[in-house]
């Protein structure tokens, strides 16, 4: 049995290796590597960053190590995903052996976990995998430890379980649900075989694990509340049914038969499941048949399904409240990445149903081994097809071309670049300021790659090429009052550079045409906004300056003693490479 189980795990890892290799950095991945390239490993700004409500220091530490070893190389994330998936798969196998022993029937729920499509989207997206896979591993490991602790009383299982919980929490705050889930499975493992008083027995015999978990959760909660800005619910209660329908009928339920078979994607959104209506109906019928047969043949099976239903609600409703809202579509739940841990719970539920004591009249009505083998094989083939269709959708995108091209182009720079946002298909403006090129490209840039000013205006195109650019004449600096000079700048007193019209608060580029008597530094800014220090060179030159602010004039001042500067007319507007 164990050899067959190992073979199944190897098969899963081969398939998942293909899935991972077909992907690339996506969305939050770029935020992770950007912050990893900007901060030291032990920096609180890295480890204790509030990432959209997530507290995940271990995930950021992993991203830092991967980025430090091979910046912008996709091989690093692929390796981490496969290592974490292997750990989760082994933990699930251990859980099943604890619940069922080394019987061949273990292979059925194991195959369900290994190939179920509900885990694929969270695996393929590196940032999601750094959350989801440690959670799956912690769930399976602590469930097994809880059952073993209650069964044997050995304290080492309490220590192991508490350690696994702590690690899971460092990757993903959703691990708070692990102790309650482990308690439920430990209790059900005794209840389904006919024992009584299981709640009290599990609470008493597993006390070291529950007390240790409570202490870990308490310490973690203090850190979480200190780091994370608790967001208000974005969804209205009336929106929840639509989200739940998408998560169940169009999301989780079709995976019971290896669906959804098809996915849709609008770049830059992640793929979401699009099962056919026929598949949805068949999936519900199959699920109803499984539930009905198990309850009819096993008198205590209803408690197992009730636990699964409660877990599903606990997993879905907070996500619906926090991630929903007036600008959120129901397809968000169909992406399935929020529900990957449900695969572990369903696998444990399957093991509990197998171990449950059947009714006396049903002892001879079990499915034949051939039927079980055929159904399992059909499920695996269906799941593999769903995985293949997911990869076809997931592999679309422009990020790989953009990052590989710009990384190669950066070596040819002879002057700094001004700050700009990456293309919206790579990381859209809702992620600002994490979508700034200097942050996304931090792993492969130096301290002088981006600056507030540059003597040569160049920009990164949507394909990653670095090309010459110009400044649109949204506004212009009016000709100055000094004949033959324009605006004379001498000393620290600000000189007003009048514009030919007002400018709204925005990120603007100023083309500053000047004649300087010596090398030095000036400050430049709008009437309303921060000033930027700009180096100037002796002689007649042009410098392009990125300024943020608004007003009808710019203000310039010399900060270098003895610097004498003449400023001529020039454009103030948006930098562009295709005008």
From TrEMBL:
Keyword annotations from UniProtKB, A to Z: Membrane, Transmembrane, Transmembrane helix
Key word Lipid metabolism present: no
Record-annotated membrane-spanning stretches: 105-127, 133-150, 162-189, 209-231, 243-263, 275-295, 302-324, 336-356, 368-388
Highest taxon, organism lineage: Bacteria
Protein name, per record: Glycosyltransferase RgtA/B/C/D-like domain-containing protein
